[in-house]
Design a protein that fits this description.
Largest interface: A-B, 24 and 28 residues
Structural class of chain A: mainly beta
Oligomer: heterodimer
Strand content of chain A: over 45%
Order of helices and strands of chain B: EEEEEEEEEEE
Largest sheet of chain B: 7 strands, mixed
Order of helices and strands of chain A: EEEEEEEEE
Distance between the termini of chain B: 35 Å
Number of helices of chain A: 0
Strand order of the largest sheet of chain A: 1-9-8-3-4
Largest sheet of chain A: 5 strands, mixed
Distance between the termini of chain A: 37 Å
Chain lengths: ~120, ~120
Amino acid sequence: DAKTTQPTSMDCAEGRAANLPCNHSTISGNEYVYWYRQIHSQGPQYIIHGLKNNETNEMASLIITEDRKSSTLILPHATLRDTAVYYCIVRVYAYSGAGSYQLTFGKGTKLSVIP
Amino acid sequence: DTGVSQNPRHKITKRGQNVTFRCDPISEHNRLYWYRQTLGQGPEFLTYFQNEAQLEKSRLLSDRFSAERPKGSFSTLEIQRTEQGDSAMYLCASSFSGGRNTEAFFGQGTRLTVV
């Protein structure tokens, strides 16, 4: 799986949008971008994933550049409960009967939402 | 079903003792994963089951580690002759191999301290 680069830490004011960048310049054509987060003392939580189109769900939006070498996770209105470590992972999509679902986590970005 | 359940949440053991952790996945999930997380690092993959078959093992999984999923439901991870370096959070995750939504759901982990 391709390697990702994320800033070590970021701050965001409560109520503002949090934009978390991720570089994945060696991503290959069949690799998806996944985002997970880990709140202190809990297991990682799935947020969103995408291939090349922008994606949105109830938690966040994922913007992937046209060349797919970078992406941004957007939390539209950050709350104190969004304080966590955010992991950007690129991997082949695990569809039915194929491959495994091993996730390769880096150190992620520690997002601190400030009141 | 409230998600992936792991027991115990915390375990303190003396060096050289054996420990066993249990993971109960989400009931319809046929894939189960074990990860290990040390302080300040992202989770690292240990092993993966599809139903009762153990299909992948990381080189991190030394001879002292063994995982089972005898009936394709719950899983156990045993560490024999524990060492101080085994101190970590042990995370279990599960996913479903069919359909579109194959993302992994993680439990809250078992924190092991070897003294």
